[in-house]
Amino acid sequence: MVFLAGSRALTGILKCWRRALAPTGGRTLSTRCRYCGAEAVVRVPYAKLNLCAEHFGKFVVDRVKEAFRRYGMAGPGAKILLALSGGKDSSSLAYIMREISSSMGFKLAALHIDLGIGEFSKRSREAVENVCRKLGIQLVLIDLKRDLGFDLIDLIRRLRSKRVCSLCGVVKRYVMNAVAIELNADAVATAHHADDVLTYIFKNFVIQDYNYMRKLLPVNMGIPNTVATRIKPLYEIYERDLVLYAKHLNIDFVDMDCPFAKEEGMETVIRKFVEDLEARAPGTKISILRKFVKAHLGVQKDVEGYGRCSSCGLVSLRDRCSFCKLTEKCFGKPLGPAVREIIRQRFGDGVWA
Ligand code: SF4
Ligand code: ZN
Ligand code: ZN
């Protein structure tokens, strides 16, 4: 496992693991697994279950399968591109998707973007390469510096911008969509879990951004050859359960925060609020998510009003997409078409397994 001692994320993960192992305040869980009678190591309050490690893993996997059915995320034969950052959530997503791929009839490939953020990118890439090697998933690696001639640090310097995460978001979203379109993926799967989605739902309610809220549905339908369908297989999986799952399977992940990461104060408050609701009434998170989906049915609206970029042909709300505009500003020409060409040349349709 890729660990960096002392990082904030590691401390949080270990605390979470200890709490789940000793949910009664430090005492060992004395009950038995509901399914096999072995000693239980995890209590799942919202399902009222005590489980051994093996049945806990199965419980998580079954919940993801159920989410695929409930939300109609993808059907047999679907080619699903896994967006892997190297963190615990996306590494766990890869394991779960590999586990369910044969019974659900999915074909998988993975995408990782090396952003060129020093040690963080190096370790993230190693973690993704290890996971893909272990699981036999073909990795589509886009190394910004090698493939496009610039990395995130170059962009920040050229633009003298402090808005690092929004620049990073433009690049990641563009590359992810371009890869999915060029490889004919039926869907791109991201690792947003229940706690992420709920935090953004409440945050966007507070700032009254209802357009963004539609992006928080479990499925966002695409437009052929323009924008890929995006799905969130971990929609009903709690972050705590993902931590336990990753620990249980000894999954490789980079436990190091991006040096540019900073959680907004509002998000911290909302996460705590959501945790409190769940502690008072286990299952509240899932119930809110299902009500949210019901209230926002008609996911096709997600792509209403979208057109195509006049430079690269991919999705854009205006004449040209953000990536083409950004790269023209920095390098004198829009690089969207070059990105598409590189993907076409380097990776054929043979990446799916
Ligand atoms: Fe990119 Fe910001 Fe995430 Fe770092 S924290 S990977 S810069 S979006
Ligand atoms: Zn068991
Ligand atoms: Zn474009």
Descriptive tags:
single chain; about 350 residues; alpha/beta; 6-stranded mixed beta sheet; two-stranded antiparallel sheet; 14 helices; 10 strands; about 50% helix; about 10% strand; disordered N terminus; binds iron/sulfur cluster; binds zinc ion
What topology does this entry show?
Elements: H1 8-21, E1 42-44, E2 49-51, H2 53-71, E3 79-83, H3 88-104, E4 107-114, H4 118-135, E5 139-143, H5 144-148, H6 152-159, H7 164-182, E6 187-189, H8 194-206, H9 210-213, E7 219-220, E8 230-231, H10 239-248, H11 265-280, H12 284-295, E9 307-308, E10 315-316, H13 322-331, H14 336-346
Parallel strand pairs: 3-4, 3-6, 4-5, 6-8
Antiparallel strand pairs: 1-2, 7-8, 9-10
Helix pairs in contact: 1-10, 2-3, 2-10, 3-4, 3-10, 7-14, 8-11, 8-12
The structure holds iron/sulfur cluster (SF4) and zinc ion (ZN) (2 copies).
The site of one zinc ion has 8 residues, from helix 2.
